[in-house]
Design brief:
Strand order of the largest sheet: 10-16-15-14-11-13
CATH topology of one domain: Immunoglobulin-like
Number of helices: 22
Strand content: 15-25%
CATH architecture of one domain: Sandwich
Number of strands: 27
Largest sheet: 6 strands, mixed
CATH class of one domain: Mainly Beta
Bound molecules: beta-D-glucopyranose
Length: 750
């Protein structure tokens, strides 16, 4: 029988209600034995199960159960594949059921503002649409198993520096368009059971006390039905937080905050109705889990195979000048670099999974063919070891192809602090330079959670980005390098040439507990493309061992009204001779000039698997939001009428088709005129145009009437910026007459 939650809340004492708002300990919610309310467990997340014992400090890593470590989000997003994310979510949901975990703490959708953020490896993308779409699929997957998710960290938590005290300072448009969109898409499409608020302040107010974010936007505007929990230790003022919409404080506060809540109600500061609503939200989710509990067992072996399968589809082939795949058996191949033996497969901090089986790429490759190996450098530190380098050069000289396994040591990127620079350890650059002196065919494999500088990119023959690909990354790499599988990942972030090129460079990580997001909406490719800058590798880029062709682009119409939709269909053909997967990407460019917009923005994508010679048609649907920006004047999404380009291709810098469409807005932007309104602002307004032409423009005759054509053009251009009041200077019109004109114009708008 379904529990009557409202009835349960009615029967609770004030103290029992207050107790529900903080954890029992690090991982459990509080029970109320008198009423039979159970205690349930939550656990990290996001790319595996980190189920710890109760006593464990939450960032401790060794005492969690052995589980399967799937690729981290930096890698899985490169699949651009909704069904892959859903499948992975399903597997994780089943593992949670088997381990009695009610909520998995993920996905983490914070935008990669700077390559230096220590947690970028856990985050999905620099693009909010991509992050939101893939997070929604992951959430649907986990929750299909009657286990909840906790989308995190809400919001604008894009660095580790001063993360528990600092304030992210940004304007409303930037907040909405870049930093909230992934959460918004996920809430609207997938209803995560819980949302985790972040540590930081947003424009001076802690996320955990931010009524605008928690109550107004998340719950009222987007319709979030679950409960909000705090990040671990993110609560400052518990009473203010509860009032603002933070239901659950994690972990527990040993009762001290529960007392504060009771006192606040007793002294009339907080209404008990606030507590009732909050308890109801928590209990709805507790019982959703408890009443739908399934008996699952999970097999580490089976799930490990899935981790390998997913890892294969996330690896990005960044460059390949005819050296890959390796011809195992007929070529003399050397692997160099410690990561060949022990791949770096996950990042540090709260997402660290206790994986029991991580295959070595070297050992797996040795099953296919003979491989020469040299360590070359230690994976733990930046130290140029002459002996190791000398050995590596010797091995490189004698091989026909060399694969260097480079990457970031664990200490270089982790939760809790940011990276200091965007470089690999210098010893690795030096080693690669030495190898290039003796070897013509060099492949570099990268193990990193965020972009690194690749000064050797033009001189090596191939680069494979393996990211932090989970415990199956070694096996996956062997399949890709040997050509048993075809790479299909696409970059979910831009690789700038150097850190200084990144738009946040001058304002990251801020000082004095404030970080100003001065670059505004121009994050990642939105900036590089608008500035037509060279990048090392662009957003959306990724190669394959086969070739694809896009053709037959069909738009459902040449124009679209705001309330309508537009579908874009394109045929994709595998024109090579190996099965493969391509990702079609759709970007929109605003040509209306109504607002400052990026050169293009991702608004659709589809991953499609094709056998050699096979074709499939991919269809993507655009709606108002695909064209819109957040207009602060109306506090809403808005797209102006006019021409937009639809760009379809296979990376942000490889666009095969550009088609124009007319968009017709149905939103009226409120206009009110006064003497300071510029003539240009009213000249083309459909309701005012005629009046302006007949009654206003002639008042500027002294300025615009001339026989000199050039002069006339110049003056007409100037007229646009002239406030109505300034007409006094060019004709003998009186103030009273001008005020009358303004009155008439305002009447026309009614
Ligand atoms: C992290 C969260 C994590 C929580 C619980 C915090 O330090 O920011 O992402 O879910 O700890 O481990």
């Amino acid at each position: 029988m379904k529990t009557n939650i409202k009835e349960l809340v009615r029967n609770m004492t004030l103290e029992e209600k207050a107790g529900m708002f903080s954890g029992l300990d690090f991982w459990y919610t509080k029970p109320v034995e008198r009423l039979g309310i159970p205690s349930v467990m939550v656990s990290d997340g996001p790319h595996g199960l980190r189920k710890q014992s109760n006593e464990a400090y939450h960032l401790g890593v060794n005492d969690s159960i052995q589980a399967v470590c799937f690729p981290a989000a930096c890698a899985t997003t490169c699949s651009f594949d909704r069904s892959l994310m859903k499948d992975m979510g399903e597997v994780l949901g089943k593992e949670c059921q088997a381990e009695s975990v009610s909520v998995l703490l993920g996905p983490a959708v914070n935008i990669k503002r700077s390559p230096l953020c220590g947690r970028n490896f856990e985050y999905l993308s620099e693009d909010p649409y991509l992050a939101g779409e893939l997070a929604s699929s992951y959430i649907k997957g986990v929750q299909s198993q009657n286990v909840g998710t906790s989308i995190k960290h809400f919001a604008a938590n894009n660095q580790e520096h001063e993360r528990m005290t600092g304030s992210s300072e940004l304007d409303e448009r930037t907040l909405r368009e870049i930093y909230l969109t992934a959460f918004e898409i996920s809430v609207k499409k997938a209803q995560p059971w819980t949302v985790m608020c972040s540590y930081n302040k947003i424009n001076g107010i802690f996320a955990s006390e931010n009524k605008k974010l928690l109550n107004d936007i998340l719950k009222e505007e987007w319709g979030f039905e679950g409960y909000v929990m705090s990040d671990w230790g993110a609560v400052s003022d518990r009473v203010a937080g509860l009032d603002a919409g933070l239901e659950l404080e994690m972990p527990g506060s040993h009762g001290t905050n529960d007392q504060r809540i009771v006192q606040a109600v007793e002294s009339g500061i907080l209404e008990e109705a606030v507590l009732d609503r909050a308890v109801e939200r928590i209990l709805n989710i507790v019982y959703l889990y408890v009443e739908n509990k399934k008996d699952e067992i999970f097999s580490r072996e089976e799930d490990h195979k899935k981790a390998v399968e997913i890892a294969k589809q996330c690896i990005v082939l960044l460059k390949n000048d005819d050296v890959l795949p390796l011809k195992a058996g007929s070529e003399k191949i050397a692997f160099i670099g410690g990561f060949a033996k022990s791949p770096r497969y996950q990042g540090g901090g709260s997402s660290h999974i206790h994986a029991s089986h991580v295959a070595s790429t070297l050992e797996m490759m040795e099953e296919y063919t003979e491989i020469e190996y040299a360590e070359g450098f230690s994976t733990k530190e930046d130290f140029y070891d002459e002996k190791l380098v000398a050995e590596a050069i010797k091995v490189a000289e004698q091989a026909e192809k060399v694969v260097v396994f480079a990457g970031l040591p664990d200490l270089f990127e982790s939760e809790g602090y940011d990276r200091k620079h965007m470089r690999l350890p210098e010893c690795q650059y030096q080693l690669i330079e030495e190898i290039l002196k003796v070897q013509k065919k060099v492949v570099v494999v990268l193990h990193n959670g965020s972009p690194v500088e690749l000064p050797f990119a033009d001189r090596v023959n191939a680069i494979v980005e393996a990211y932090l690909g989970g415990e199956g990354v070694g096996e996956a790499l062997v399949e890709i390098l040997s050509g048993k599988s075809n790479p299909c990942g696409k970059l979910a972030e831009s690789f700038p040439i150097r850190l200084e090129d990144n738009p946040s460079f001058l304002n990251f990580p801020g000082t004095g507990k404030k970080v100003y997001y001065q670059e505004g909406i121009f994050v990642g490719y939105r900036y590089y493309d608008s500035k037509k800058m060279k990048v090392r590798f662009p957003f959306g880029h990724g190669l394959s061992y086969t070739t694809f062709k896009l053709s037959d682009l069909v738009l459902s119409g040449r124009s679209m009204r705001e309330s309508g939709t537009l579908t874009v269909a394109v045929k994709v053909t595998n024109t090579g001779n190996m099965a493969g997967k391509e990702v079609v990407q759709l970007y929109v460019k605003d040509n209306t000039g109504a607002a400052i917009r990026p050169e293009k923005e991702l608004r659709g994508f589809e991953a499609v698997s094709l056998q050699p010679g096979e074709s499939k048609t991919v269809t993507m649907t655009l709606e108002k939001r695909s064209f819109a920006w957040f207009n602060e004047n109306i506090n809403d999404w808005y797209a102006a009428s006019g021409t937009y380009d639809i760009l379809v291709g296979t990376s942000s810098r490889k666009i095969d088709f550009t088609e124009s469409v007319e968009y017709v807005s149905e939103t009226e932007i409120p206009v009110h005129l006064d003497l300071n309104t510029m003539i240009g602002d009213v000249m083309n307004h459909p309701l005012l145009r005629d009046y302006v032409k007949e009654a206003i423009v002639p008042l500027a005759a002294g300025l615009t009437e001339t026989d000199d054509e050039n002069w006339a053009v110049m003056m007409e251009a100037m007229l646009r910026y002239l406030p109505i009041r300034a007409l006094r200077s060019f004709s003998d019109v009186t103030n009273d007459e001008l005020e009358k004109h303004v009155e008439e114009l305002n009447k026309l708008l009614i």
